[in-house]
Amino acid sequence: MAQKINPLGFRLGTTQNHHSLWFEQPKNYSQGLQEDKRIRNSIQNYVKKNIKIPSGVVGISRIEIQKTIDVIEVRIYLGFLKLLIERQPKKTEKLDMKKITELQTKAIEELPMIVQKELNPINRKLKIKIKRIPNPYKDPNILAEFIAEQLKNRVAVRKAMKKAVELAKEVDAKGIQIKIAGRLGGNDIARATWLRKGRVPLQTLRTKIDYCCYTVRTIYGVLGIKIWIFVDKE
C-alpha cells in the first residue's frame, strides 16, 4: 500500500516555503511553536467573531510569522477585501487603489492588541501586514471554507464539490482534486467521495501543489475536506 505524505512538507525547499521563519534554542523551541499557534488562532477567531461576512467564508489564505530578536512580523494573506472593512461589505468592489493601500497600512486597529496578548513575555515589537492574494479561489484553504459553508447549509455534497471545481477552473487552475469523508448526507455509515478535474501530479517534485486539510462540524457529525490544486510547474 502506498505511503501518504503531506504534499507541502514533501516539497519544502523546492516549490514550498516555511510559514514560520525564526531560530530558537532547543530548550525554547516548543514555546516558540506554541506561540505561533496562539497567534494564528487569535487572528482567525477574531475575524470569525467580529467581521460579518455574508458568505461565511473567512478568506484567510495563510498567516506567515517571521521573528527576529526584537520584532515579530505577522503577514496575513487575504482572499477578499471584505475582511479589511467592517460593516461595509457592499462597497468593497468599488474601492480605488488609494483606499486599498490605506486599508492595508491601517488594517484593523484592534487586531494588534489581541495578538499582543498571545505573545511570550519578552519585549518585542509586533508588526502586522495584510496582503491580498490575486486569485482567492486558486487557494485550497479558501475553497475548503467555501465547501464547508455549503455543507453547513445542507447543500448536496456533489453539488458543493462541483461548484468548487468550477470556481478553481475559472481562475485557470491546471488541476484540482477534492476528497470529503464522513457521514455524507446524514448516512449512518461513513464514506469518502472524490472529485478530480485536470492533472494533479503529486509525485513530481517540481510541480507546485497547494494542499489543504479542513475540518467542518455539521449537524450529522464531523466531515473532513482535503483539496489538492495543481498551480503550475516551477
Automatic annotation (TrEMBL):
Residues 147-229 form the Small ribosomal subunit protein uS3 C-terminal domain. Keywords: Chloroplast, Plastid, Ribonucleoprotein, Ribosomal protein, RNA-binding. It is found in: Plastid, Chloroplast. SUPFAM superfamilies: Prokaryotic type KH domain (KH-domain type II), Ribosomal protein S3 C-terminal domain. GO terms for biological process: translation. The keyword Glycoprotein does not apply. InterPro entries: KH_dom-like_a/b, KH_sf_prok-type, Ribosomal_S3_C_sf, Ribosomal_uS3, Ribosomal_uS3_bac-typ, Ribosomal_uS3_C, Ribosomal_uS3_CS. PANTHER family: 30S/40S RIBOSOMAL PROTEIN S3 (PTHR11760), SMALL RIBOSOMAL SUBUNIT PROTEIN US3C (PTHR11760:SF19). Part of the 30S ribosomal subunit. Belongs to the universal ribosomal protein uS3 family. This is Small ribosomal subunit protein uS3c.
